[in-house]
Amino acid sequence: MLISKKLPFNYLFSMIKVDVIRVFLFSLTFNFFKFFFNDYLPSLPAQLPTVLGTAISLGLAFKLNHSYDRWWEARKIWGSIVNDSRTLILELKNFINPEVLGFEETKALLRKVAFRQIGWCYAFGESLRGRDSRATILKYLIPAEAGFVLPQSNKNFAMLDLHMQDLKKLLSQQAINPYQQVQVDNTINRLTNAMGMAERINNTVFPVTYRVIIHFFIYLFLIILSLGLVETVGPLEIPILIMTATTFFLIEKTATYLEDPFVDMPTDTPVTSIARAIEINLKQLLEEPNVPEPLAPEDFYLK
Amino acid sequence: MLISKKLPFNYLFSMIKVDVIRVFLFSLTFNFFKFFFNDYLPSLPAQLPTVLGTAISLGLAFKLNHSYDRWWEARKIWGSIVNDSRTLILELKNFINPEVLGFEETKALLRKVAFRQIGWCYAFGESLRGRDSRATILKYLIPAEAGFVLPQSNKNFAMLDLHMQDLKKLLSQQAINPYQQVQVDNTINRLTNAMGMAERINNTVFPVTYRVIIHFFIYLFLIILSLGLVETVGPLEIPILIMTATTFFLIEKTATYLEDPFVDMPTDTPVTSIARAIEINLKQLLEEPNVPEPLAPEDFYLK
Amino acid sequence: MLISKKLPFNYLFSMIKVDVIRVFLFSLTFNFFKFFFNDYLPSLPAQLPTVLGTAISLGLAFKLNHSYDRWWEARKIWGSIVNDSRTLILELKNFINPEVLGFEETKALLRKVAFRQIGWCYAFGESLRGRDSRATILKYLIPAEAGFVLPQSNKNFAMLDLHMQDLKKLLSQQAINPYQQVQVDNTINRLTNAMGMAERINNTVFPVTYRVIIHFFIYLFLIILSLGLVETVGPLEIPILIMTATTFFLIEKTATYLEDPFVDMPTDTPVTSIARAIEINLKQLLEEPNVPEPLAPEDFYLK
Amino acid sequence: MLISKKLPFNYLFSMIKVDVIRVFLFSLTFNFFKFFFNDYLPSLPAQLPTVLGTAISLGLAFKLNHSYDRWWEARKIWGSIVNDSRTLILELKNFINPEVLGFEETKALLRKVAFRQIGWCYAFGESLRGRDSRATILKYLIPAEAGFVLPQSNKNFAMLDLHMQDLKKLLSQQAINPYQQVQVDNTINRLTNAMGMAERINNTVFPVTYRVIIHFFIYLFLIILSLGLVETVGPLEIPILIMTATTFFLIEKTATYLEDPFVDMPTDTPVTSIARAIEINLKQLLEEPNVPEPLAPEDFYLK
Amino acid sequence: MLISKKLPFNYLFSMIKVDVIRVFLFSLTFNFFKFFFNDYLPSLPAQLPTVLGTAISLGLAFKLNHSYDRWWEARKIWGSIVNDSRTLILELKNFINPEVLGFEETKALLRKVAFRQIGWCYAFGESLRGRDSRATILKYLIPAEAGFVLPQSNKNFAMLDLHMQDLKKLLSQQAINPYQQVQVDNTINRLTNAMGMAERINNTVFPVTYRVIIHFFIYLFLIILSLGLVETVGPLEIPILIMTATTFFLIEKTATYLEDPFVDMPTDTPVTSIARAIEINLKQLLEEPNVPEPLAPEDFYLK
């Protein structure tokens, strides 16, 4: 997630470099043509760029809206992961009857589940970003459980299975009552849903035809605008066109980046930072030592 | 679901072939008229195409928005099918008391329900696409149950009934407690809802009058634009009009394809691929052998 | 719900007949004036129709959006009625302990509730459309219950009360357990909600001032457009104006029809057809004879 | 809620009287200036009103959209009050075991709760409209309870407390079981939520700066449009400007009225009429005598 | 939250001072240039400001829509905090069996939880606004509990843990039954969610690139508009441009302020006032003395 109010100019420029250079080239060509073969350039009616400009603006607004919705839904999903991680440990801490298991064993169990949940958050962020989560799983899970999780293709689903197995054991030991089991099961179901929802956004490509058309449409608009401007304005057309193109392409790229909120870029959802916040919360709740600091932003974004 | 970043040009062109040829023909006719009977062509005021262009752009934006919503809702429904299929088996696995039924029989029961759920997903995708799901049902259900399901018109509803019957039996054997039965019933209710929601999208035609009007409106706009351009631009009008028409028709067609997200076309919801992902998850959870590979995309889309 | 891809031209034309004739008359008048008193017609600046055209297009887009939302919400409500009707019978079938009541009586009870639910669906559709539902109630309810329901003003609410009374009796006979009663009560609550939601849409008029303004605004726009066109285009103005007016009025009417999704017109929600689908599902679930066929569309729409 | 299809012209005109007169005055002034000091009037470029017109149309569309959403949410909240009032009494009627309290006392209790709920609906509507609800409370509550409710500042919250106290007593008498208590508590929670949601809309002012800007913007637009029209059209400018202004101001006012859906005006949510419908439903359910008629509309609106 | 209908002019002006002065300076410069070097100013085609104006209006509409959604979601979250605070105390008051703990101790416990919840609301508002909440916690919590809460980084989460601990104790004393514990746990979960949701809005920056582009785009539009106007209108261009710029910048700033609804400015969510309303409700419910007055607005806004 970008955080800096002063975005590095380089970053913004690198987003649209190629497109702007292309625009520069064809507007240069049109000016060149105008200079040498003035009469051969067609005179376009003024209303054409207006019509196309309105259409392309609406097209971009549509793209921006739905990209923003994908991005915001992604952030909401991770917000619900924060909530449900907190709820999970809060419930277990205050549901388990310590007299059944004894104070020490209860504490150890809570610690095990909390670390597994912390690991789940980090590992899920990594898997969404297409990274390897094995090191994380080995760090936060006890060896026996890591051995169960690692061979599976959906490692996060396997960790939720481990939560459920602990719950089953707690019920059979009567350390929790049947309503409490069902209540914690609800919390785990919400984690299952959050996982599926994030996977859905990650696996569903924004309609490809639309992406292609809108990009082509911006070019069509800029070419026709350039033809119109070269008639009336002359060489000054070049900076005006470049600035207009810059704005349209930056809006398009902003939308395109929001479309894929888990792709391991500066604009994505700050899943590592959120997982860290969960780690801090859960460790403080269980009065664990070694509570880490919140993740500091890198340069102009939060990871 | 289209996935390729490089869409085949043929695919895009085939979407709008007929419409673009029509546009080509009438713009050719207008140019022909202009050449021979210049004086008889009316001179249209510049503002008319602008007004119509704004109106048609807003009309397309409306269509695109609601088509996108239908498509995205369809994808969400299948996302919830993923979540609830996982939850169903996760709950049953960790609710059933193995001491009641014995370890082997419990495992067999879980296996039977999981296969039925996998079959449910494939068969539901097939029925949405208007295909025959009988082979799938015979493959994933035991013969007695397939015999119960096959004669019914809503086969997927019948499979959910089988889930409920197993639940009833488990309760009467006291292998699960009453809260657990109600909790799994909630999961099955969500599957019933997902089924009904997908059927709703599939059976509800996007307002037909609107579809017709917007198509007619694009033609009206293009004809008037063509009349205006032929005046000022001459023969160059033809490529400009064709490119403009291409963009508008592509946007219209993109929307029309999104409207019906289960019609067995390259743009539809990848239900087979999602069902395969569920199969992998459930089989790994139950430590089944013969876990299949994820479905590979065909050419430029995922089935 | 309109279904035919080939809408009868008569149907479309009858929607906007009056308005289009009015437009024809005033554009004829303007042409007449232009012919005889050319100098007395004011020359309107080109930007005025553009401004009004943009405003009216946005106004129509707003109307269309919210009308569509009402229509789609209506369809969703009936979708949830499908789901909850299925869930209700699925739950009762698999919750009731047949050993308590005996196999035959259980089957009779299930049959009675299912028929009442089928009757509820038909009768609710009829009452939304302002029709008499007494014949339906007499057909699907046993006489004693019909006698309880018929005198009440909200007959559908009374039928839900009968569901609840059966539930109460089942609990007192211990044929279901307390969690199951509460679970089925949840399903009935959802039916209560669906009923209230459909009544809300039916009883809440779309903001009347807005309806009036937008209609007046379209006329204002067409008159000013006509004045502008008559200047530059002459008699050809008439067909152009008529076609433009046709499109705007058709969009307005489409929206107006979507606003009231239960008014017993070809464009409304196909409640009879949905109720029939529920009847088929529930009867097949209970292995009833005499399962009817799905409702066939009439001409170009589904009832 | 406005209901009449034929809105009185006076009502519409009174909404925008002041604004339209102001527009009339400045357009008159501009015409006067043009007549006497033609040369001193600046000639504005045609594109300026177009740009401002598009901006103002989008600004109004935004305002209209969110005002509509507030109005529709208000209506949904009262729809849910209908549903939960019905559910509350339906549940109590079919949960309470009459053998514990005796048939007569059960009936009396149900009657007391139902009347309290009816009173709650009327009183809540009155308090939202800023009226005194004491008479209503004295009418529908028994004296002892009215004495508990009246001194409190949030009288509706106090009435929900009374519902909860009855529930507590029913549980301690074992007239309902613990699951039923929790289930009815859910229904009461939804009523608490509906209450808070309606208060939220009532207490949250639509962003004030935006209200001010959009009003100022419409004037800016009309002044510039007037300057442009006076150049080209002359005195005919006055009726055209007035009609355009009327439309824009009517749309603005429609939105402003929708923003505050509980202000005791003809356009607000018909809370009295809804409360009456609830009264009819609940009294018929309990087979009470003296069921009132539905509230008849006053003139052109429903109260 | 702004409340006054008469916003101080100073307040509005201070929002956009810097931007308007910049616009004044460059329009002055262009006029100066025009006066001295008339021929060197390029003549821009009329359609360019129109195209850019449409694009920028759509861009602002997008920004305004999503900013409004953030602001309204923030208000909804605090609305749900009101509802769940009321529900929490309503449930505890009517769930706890007073015979177990004795009347006095029950009252003391309820008082302790209610004060903690009131403190939670105030402290959460303060922490969202980046203020120190320690004084508040010391005021509303008993010393032992304050000692537990103060060292933690997420103090509000710690207070919810205290709620859960009380619940656990009540269950082990059998002052509430297991269903009631789970039911109150649901209420506390909703408070956990509300907390996480408000934190999400507070921590998630509105897409930074978009903020930057839209601001740059408004300048681009105003410069080009100024160049166009200086040609045709002359010095009168300055007030027209300033007024147009004022409107666009005010809309932009209104959106920017809505984006961050918890930043301790006059436009933010009135969390102190809401917390006060909760305090009044809960104290009256428990018949506490010293019920405070509702928070009075400061000048033109509510804190």
Automatic annotation (TrEMBL), chains A, B, C, D, E:
Transmembrane segments: 43-62, 208-227
Coiled-coil regions, chain positions: none
Membrane topology reported for the UniProt record: Multi-pass membrane protein
Protein's UniProt keywords contain Ribonucleoprotein: no
InterPro entries, alphabetized: YneE/VCCN1/2-like (IPR044669)
Protein's UniProt keywords contain Transport: yes
Top-rank taxon: Bacteria
Keywords: Cell membrane, Ion transport, Membrane, Transmembrane, Transmembrane helix, Transport
Location within or outside the cell: Cell membrane
Assigned protein family: Belongs to the anion channel-forming bestrophin (TC 1.A.46) family.
Protein name: Bestrophin, RFP-TM, chloride channel
Organism: Adhaeribacter terrigena
